[in-house]
Amino acid sequence: MTNPVFFDAIDEALYTNGESDRLHWMTTPPRVGDRLPLGSRAGRMWEVIELCTYAGDVGELTIAHVHPVGVAVPDRAEWYATRLKARKPLASMTLHVKPDGSLHQTGCNFTGALPIVHRLLTAFDVTNHKTGSQPWGIESFDTYSPVNPEATYMAVYLTHVVPVDLSEVPGAIVLESEKVLATAQ
Amino acid sequence: MANPWNPFEEVREWHAAATDDKCLDMEAQFRAQGLDISLVDTETTGDGVLGKACIFDGPDSDPEASRWPNNQGDDDD
Fold first, then answer.
1. Fewer CB atoms inside 10 A, N or C side of chain B?
2. Measured between CB atoms, does B45 come within 8 Å of chain A?
3. What's the predicted TM-score (pTM) here?
């Protein structure tokens, strides 16, 4: 049996072209010190600095905070995760996962709201500042709660998204110049 | 059979940013300007530069607001 492990940069600003958060399904969680690539940049490895476990009815989910090998790790007080916990105590993370287990999209909510089943995901056109409907909808979701009370998020939701034919959805807005996620293709 | 899919349309105020951290900075900036507005959600956009949508709500939130009067667009620092 495999469980989801979300590799999350301590500082997202350090991602370069092709690098991003990653979701892997693993039989055993990673360990601090483990290294992995997070994108297409050849030769650059990221190191697991800290692990945080969340438990759910369907198993455990691990968030692995990672940082580029060879780059000084910032003091924990400077981490986004630390700032977030102080500013947004109701923060939850949502991982939208496709039927093949790959990560489609991520999000965070700061009001304690749950994912909404049967809602289409939102497409954001940053160039024209418009929004529309993605051809992906939330079919169901799993809830994971923090094992450690010092965890950043009050919950992590893993939603199961499925492809939707927008032509069959009344009211769906298809952006003419939508910039959908490459994984949605 | 009724179609179960809800085509949610985002109508809250939102601005694009490079990282989630920038969304928090944006909220602090708006509040420093005296706006009663809160960061309520973030979503990834798929854009290669402005990869986050920072979604705001509150009494002073306005989906049509131009928060950068010099027409610099969304924060991409």
1. N
2. yes
3. 0.90
Would an 8 Å CB–CB cutoff place A167 in contact with chain B?
no
pLDDT in tens, A47-59: 999 999 999 999 9
Q: Tell me the CA end-to-end span of chain A in Å, nearest whole number.
A: 28
**Rounded Cα gap, residues A49 and B14, in angstroms:** 32
3-state secondary structure of A153: coil
Q: How far is CA A153 from the centre of its chain?
A: 12
First to last CA, chain B: 48
| B2's tokens | 């009724």
A164 touches chain B (CB under 8 A): yes
Is A18 in a helix, a strand, or coil?
coil
Contact (CB, 8 A) for A34 and A57: no
Q: How far is it, in rounded angstroms, from Cα A10 to Cα A56?
A: 24
